[in-house]
Design goal:
homodimer, alpha+beta, six-stranded antiparallel beta sheet, five-stranded antiparallel beta sheet, globular, PPM-type-like_dom_sf (chains A, B), PPM-type_phosphatase-like_dom (chains A, B)
């Protein structure tokens, strides 16, 4: 389905205005600083909302569910998407989404470094490279700036990281441990690497073989590329946050489909699951003060100055009162998973670094997620204590090899922000997926959109006198909710 | 089977000479500093080896397998045990083992703190407390001192930690978050805690209830007690290593059976699995430079002074040669699971903190395990760089609730040092277990010893011209091998 891919790429270029199609994203060394970087509030380009529709989507009272307009063939693979705004917790919908097909073009060879000047030019004209498919959700907090920018740029950073790997990933032999000399301080020159099916270039000096040499897989190079792309995205937000008036931070969940494999990268508390033949396969885990307790406590223990004399790295089951000094209280430190009693000392009266349980768990009494992009200016309320040193912008990447299994049209990858998962668990999501898909023909391309809409509607609930309520009369999610439903099987779905 | 338990306790007291039966282990504040702390080389007390047998067990050429002598009812629950010395890698067998039934006696109430002076005395005379069963393996390195001492003391440290919890663990209501005032700087006085079925003591001031209060389970108190017991054991080795001439360090794997649950605590590269109805349930994971890479790199990144200008916290797939400066090489740092290329700089020529793969992976080119006890004086060869700051003495504790499943006499918990697992994988161990058990009557108490012996023999192999060989002619384990086979089911096995 190359035609569809090309169309998608064209749409991508049109939608972004700059930097798409394998060109590097706006970096300080680039010439794009004056271009619109996309920090202004908007909804995903693929929704193609008119101003009137945008106003309706922004209505906290109505909370109308949004999906791509005609529901047909809008997104690659007939991907389903739906979103709804929160019930008033923030002015705008702070979730953002992106779905693209991106061409990764091999970086041109530097002039004058090849035995003959012709080779490089020929390769450039042939646009050597490959495509990857990309879906991502960004759940913003404390403003939408970081989420908006990440939704417009993260895939370009991934593309940029992959450009150095075009030849290596297409060569079945193991990746070279070391690449030959590159006199320029610029990016890696893969055209200098000896490749089995390439243009016969020979490096200046052959890489010797070592007795102890770790084998590194192609897969782990893609994982490394995605990890570093998240880091570059975070760096770009840091650099441009003042000039672009970028506010807040965001969780990021991205799925990259490349050469038969899904790479699901998660930094934050969004979640991805695969539903295959009714079985649930978790494709991510959440990063919160509770799940990352030991990393955070370890950092605070080693760098107590980051706590600003306001916090203790120890965890206690509740606040301690000054009058309890000298009593024994349950605690745990960074080395423990269990609990023990300790005598309360003066230092223990400080606020615990990690405090609260479940959705109410907070780090430094401020933030409930511990990985993501942005938040460079976030401080503890009415203090000068920075939160960012404790946050990680690195995702955990899980890999799913599509070629290892037979997939039917009902097998899907579901990506959702926490607005979905807070009220609907994995099993319930799998139930809705199966229920909705069976009511449509397997070749009906709008069936995945219908699933996404149903997931959003069921998690939002219905507005009653006592607020948004689920079918069981429990409170629905008052948060922004965004969902991708990506089919894994069925004829003609992949390129 | 209280009789057997009492007999075991008597044996324990006789075997140790000091400190057993709920008395605190030798601590600086105790009066036992002059007593034999057990750093001298020996074999496990329960083997009851004569001097002649000890000489035979120490023979690297014969490598005779050792088990408790008559193989009947020697160890609690008819536990099977077998061990064999290494093929010459160290003078002595540096593995150690311990199997005990320990009475945890409630700490006596402090005089003068009760409303009436009588209560405490009565309680003391009643010896209020509970028993726990205990099996542990210690795999020593660079000397046997740490392993020998840990094998004689760790269970007493666990006992000591549990003494404060006697009332709390026996009370079905949730553990109190905070215990009342204890004017003395000594241990927690649980007799001051209000207990449903206790002697009606009332604390001086009631603990208020807080809106945000984390529930802590009894189970997590036991986990915390075991974790802190490992820490106290390590501290004791540190304090007494000079006076007792304690050398080296050791991995520690301990199984504690308490109130229906197994707590399996592991610090190092020993391993525990449960085999239940043919299914394999891992009860531990290994802690090595590879599995703990990110923790170690993170510490080195935050505290580069610990690397002594000799090491880099980055990982490379092989050593870099000075002539490769300026080339691009695969690397990963503490945030990454994947690999990427970086330009080689001067600093990258230092030796990588983590280097090598599998059994050859080393931290600081020195040690292949990253958790355990001892090693306080370990340094990088011919340098002043200490290894200990990177090692953790804290175990990971996994819990298995025996009451949640029906167990048959063929269900077992297997503990083994790496000498076993290096050549025999989980599945092969499960195969041997099933094969041997079926050839004995279910009520034959020596069947678990037969399993342990067979596991050791198969991993050691048979001495041929080209060394110790397995049945498939591959090299057998040249390491010390120690195995416990603990039955989980069968009539009359538990007390």
């Amino acid at each position: 389905m190359l035609l569809r891919v090309r169309a998608a790429v064209a749409q991508l270029v049109a939608g972004l205005g700059a930097g798409a199609g394998g060109q590097p994203p706006a970096e300080p060394r680039g010439g794009e600083r004056g271009s619109p970087a996309g920090a202004a509030f908007c909804r995903p380009a693929f929704l193609q909302l008119t101003p009137e529709e945008l106003r309706r989507a922004d209505d906290h009272a109505g909370r109308a569910v949004q999906s791509p307009r005609d529901g047909r063939r809008r997104l690659p693979w007939s991907t389903g998407y739906a979103e709804v705004i929160n019930a008033g917790k923030s002015q705008h919908n702070e979730d953002q989404a992106c779905c693209e097909v991106v061409f990764v073009e091999r970086r041109p060879s530097p002039r004058g470094r090849l035995p003959s000047g012709e080779g490089g030019g020929e390769l450039d004209r042939g646009r050597k490279g490959f495509y990857f498919h990309y879906w991502a959700l960004f759940d913003g907090h404390a403003g939408s700036g970081a989420a908006v920018m990440a939704s417009k740029r993260l895939h370009l950073h991934i593309c940029e990281q992959l450009r150095d790997l075009v030849d290596i990933l297409q060569d079945p032999s193991p990746p070279p441990i070391c690449l030959p000399h590159d006199a320029r301080a610029g990016p890696v020159e893969l055209s200098q690497v000896p490749l089995a099916e390439d243009d016969g270039e020979v490096p200046n000096d052959a890489v010797p073989r070592f007795h102890l040499e770790k084998a590194v897989s192609h897969e782990s190079l893609v994982i490394g590329a995605i990890e570093n792309a998240f880091k570059h995205m975070d760096d770009q937000i840091e650099r441009e946050r003042v000039s672009q008036r970028l506010s807040g931070g965001c969780c990021a969940l991205a799925a990259v489909y490349l050469m038969g494999k899904f790479y699901v990268a998660n930094a934050g508390d969004s979640r991805a699951i695969i539903i295959r033949n009714g079985e649930i396969i978790p494709m991510s885990r959440e990063f919160t003060p509770e799940t990352e307790r030991q990393r955070l406590q370890f950092l605070a223990f080693l760098r107590p100055e980051l706590l600003g004399k306001e916090f203790t790295h120890l965890e206690f089951p509740r606040r301690i009162q000054p009058k309890e000094l000298g009593k024994k209280m349950l605690y745990r430190d960074q080395n423990m998973n269990g609990w023990a009693y300790k005598k309360i000392e003066e230092d223990d009266l400080k606020f615990p670094l990690i405090y609260g349980e479940g959705k109410k768990a907070r780090m430094m009494a401020t933030i409930g997620v511990t990985r993501g992009l942005g938040d460079h200016d976030l401080k503890v309320f009415s203090s000068n204590i920075h939160i960012k040193p404790f946050l990680s912008c690195f995702p955990e990447v899980r890999v799913y090899d599509l070629t290892q299994y037979e997939h039917c049209p009902d097998d899907v990858l579901v990506l959702g922000t926490d607005g979905l998962w807070d009220v609907t668990n994995d099993k319930e999501v799998a139930g809705v997926v199966m229920e909705v898909l069976t009511s449509y023909e397997p070749n009906d391309p709008c069936r995945y959109t219908m699933v996404a809409q149903e997931l959003v509607v069921r998690s939002r609930g219905v507005l009653k006198e006592r607020g948004w309520r689920l079918a069981n009369d429990k409170l629905g999610s008052g948060d922004d909710i965004s969902v991708f439903v990506i089919p894994l099987g069925g004829p003609g779905n992949y390129t």
